[in-house]
Specification:
Elements: H1 2-5, E1 17-22, E2 26-31, E3 37-41, H2 44-54, E4 61-65, H3 72-80, E5 85-88, H4 90-99, H5 107-121, H6 131-159, H7 163-192, H8 195-205, H9 212-221, H10 230-237, H11 260-275, H12 282-291, H13 296-317, H14 323-330
Parallel strand pairs: 1-4, 4-5
Antiparallel strand pairs: 1-2, 2-3
């Protein structure tokens, strides 16, 4: 098992990478320079101990995974101490481990894998989200959970027969509606209070099919909208068809990966846009042109992709939607 567990890292004499496996109660850390391993409590006191330990050999990067929020306070502590850090996608780290023949999974081993992943990929540090962005992301996640709960209770209500169950379920739905309205009001207030985000919101909602939820999701999930590479943004959203070829075989192009929540709201925006029968609806024209020879899903993906490209261009140029401005784009 030595070949599976022992991790060798390139350039370990010149650079130090620390991998941290974050659990609810603990932080398991591995340092590439001297192969040291330590465990710390996932608490304020544990963060202090980790920072003191990491200063023994100042790291090039500290890498941890997104673990459903357990890593949030740890990352804030790293940012406040000006320690370079990055939060990795767990799926990518796991794929990396499998590619190196590491199939076992323990907290200590995961920390080693994270350190190796950071070293071999030469990952760049990331910046901590500003407070407004952090709050927006958390509130949008909470709103999504509330809507999911409301949908579940509405489905239960359709089949409920007992009077008490019906009464209490209706009460729960009413309370959830109030909570959703409260969260949406707070989201709108946060965006309105930030001049830049408010401007982005107005631009995005000017695009046919883009409502408040679509605009909020883009603002939170794609903070580089208008600044980054549009092709990379489309890959992040998972709306780029990927090849499935092998030898002479030519498989179907499919979309997968990316941010599922982003892709879901894009689909709903595209669906709304293509259903509009206005003569100047360029998104519907694009959809009809493609679906004349290809399946419905291909047309929808094309509209989603084009919507994101146009949103990026509008934010970049600080301009609102105008059909004459994007008609040529949708014909490409």
């Amino acid at each position: 098992m030595k070949t599976q567990i022992e991790i060798q890292v390139k350039n370990q004499n010149s650079e130090t990478y620390i991998g941290v496996d974050v659990a609810k109660a603990t932080l398991d850390a591995y340092r590439t320079h001297d192969h040291a391993t330590r465990q710390f409590p996932n608490s304020k006191e544990g963060f202090k101990q980790f920072l003191k330990w990491s200063k023994e050999m100042p790291p090039t990067l500290v890498l941890c995974e997104a673990t459903g929020g357990y890593e949030k306070n740890f990352v804030i502590a790293l940012a406040n101490a000006e320690v370079p850090f990055r939060v990795a996608n767990p799926a990518r780290v796991r794929d990396f481990a499998k590619s190196h023949g590491i199939l076992a999974k323990t907290d200590k081993l995961d920390a080693k894998v994270l350190a190796k992943f950071a070293a071999e990929r030469s990952l760049e540090p990331q910046k901590l989200q500003v407070e407004t962005q952090r709050r927006l992301k958390e509130l949008i996640g909470w709103r999504r959970q509330l809507i999911k709960a409301r949908t579940m209770h509405r489905n239960q209500l359709e089949h409920a027969a007992d009077k008490m169950v019906v009464k209490e379920t209706k009460w729960l739905i009413k309370q959830l509606n109030k909570q959703i309205e409260k969260v949406e009001a707070e989201l709108d207030q946060l965006i309105d209070n930030d001049p830049q985000l408010s401007n982005f919101n107005d631009i995005l909602q000017s695009i046919p099919g883009f409502g408040p939820e679509m605009a909020r999701t883009l603002i939170v999930e794609l903070p580089d909208l208008g600044k980054g590479d549009p092709a990379k943004l489309c890959r992040l959203a998972g709306v780029v068809p990927l090849n499935g070829d092998s030898g002479k075989f030519r498989g179907k192009r499919r979309i997968y990966g990316g941010r599922g929540t982003m892709r879901t709201v894009l689909y709903m925006a595209a669906l709304s846009a293509v259903k509009c029968v206005k003569a100047d609806n360029v998104f519907r024209q694009l959809y009809l042109r493609i679906t004349a020879t290809r399946p419905h899903k291909v047309g929808m993906v094309a509209v989603m992709h084009k919507m994101l490209i146009i949103a990026h261009a509008l934010v970049k140029n600080n301009e609102k939607w105008q059909n004459k401005m994007v008609k040529k784009i949708t014909e490409n």
